[in-house]
Amino acid sequence: MNPIEIVKQLKGFNDLFVQKTGKDYFSAYQESQAPIITLVTCADSRVQTDSIVEDATNKIFTIRNIGNQIYSNEGSVDYGILHLKTPILLIMGHADCGAVKAYMGGYSSEPASIKTELDHLTPAINGSNTNLLKTIVKNVNYQVSVALEKYAEIIGNHELMVVGAVYDFKNEIGEGFGKFKVVNINGDDKI
Ligand SMILES: [Zn+2]
After folding, report:
1. What is the CATH class of 32-185?
2. How many angstroms does the Cα of residue 61 sit away from the middle of ligand 1?
3. 166 CA to middle of ligand 1, Å?
């Protein structure tokens, strides 16, 4: 699609949004935000928060990168946990993750910037088998373990719960297309 057309569509949609919302819609969070979840998820466009909440506004503090990684945006994750003090840190991987796939298939020909981003996946994925879904879950479990170590004190004080999940828009787990499957809570991956 022509980029000018895309921008026109955005403006048209926004005009309707401005009309239907108004001052009251925004009044609750004019001065500060109060999210309940810090979300670390993949940048993949097939993954959006409307699979878990109707409107993520002022509810989800979202950090996105390829492969839903903490170390790629550690400062932003820290901001959600240490400053906004969300009671939940949600790590949400997803079916058919291109970052995990790229890692498993080899990525030496990628530009340095992408290589660096994928290099962070080494402790999560290195030595993993060829099953993509299992490796995606393995990465989620690894990211949870990073969080458990980073925020051990806050978790110990029962002020934070770390949740690992997979958004399964391909129904590979077999519980429905679009299923939000929790795979780990505070390091317990037997759930
Ligand atoms: Zn992905």
Report:
1. alpha beta
2. 18
3. 10
Rounded to the nearest whole angstrom, what is the distance from the C-alpha of residue 47 to the centroid of ligand 1?
8
State which residues have CB under 5 angstroms from ligand 1, the bound ion.
42, 44, 97, 99
Residue 174, amino acid: G
Tell me the pTM.
Answer: 0.95
d(CA 83, CA 138): 29
Q: Closest Cα to residue 100, out of 63, 139, 47, 127?
A: 139
Please give the single-letter amino acid code of residue 6. I
pLDDT tens digits, 10-47:
999 999 999 999 999 999 999 999 999 999 999 999 99
Q: Where are the domains of the chain?
A: 1-29, 32-185
Q: Facing residues of 88 across strands?
A: 37, 161
d(CA 5, ligand 1 centre) in Å: 28
Q: Which of 116, 117, 17 is nearest to 65 (CA)?
A: 117
Spatial contact of 143 and 151, defined as CB atoms under 8 Å apart: no
